Amino acid sequence: MNEDSYITKKGAIAIAIILIALIIFSFIFYRTRRTGNYAVIFHYGKETGSYPLGLNREIRIKDKKGRLTNIVCIKNGYVYMKEANCPDKICIHQGKKSKVSETITCLPNRVVVEVKGRETGSLDTMTH
To answer: How far apart are CA 125 and CA 105, in angstroms?
Structure first.
């Protein structure tokens, strides 16, 4: 057998260290994400509304024929898909969202809910 095809002990240790570092980085990244302030709902690619996460409410979404397709619920600082008439109900099983950039998507009904942070008028970067 050719010994060049095997991973050496040093190589295995290096791979283990890299994997552990990636796991730690991922954990820190996901735990320190900012909590969002509002949810934006898009239907057929167009923004239909922006709702603060601090006010409990239900948003009813209807298709172009006026039939109810989805109910988006905002409760206790979270947004989630409460009901949907799509066949697979994947959007309902995506769970509650509250962090910036998290989304809930219902592809059959073309509904996307995105959590966003507070909009401010200040500059994030400066250029020279």
So the answer is: 31
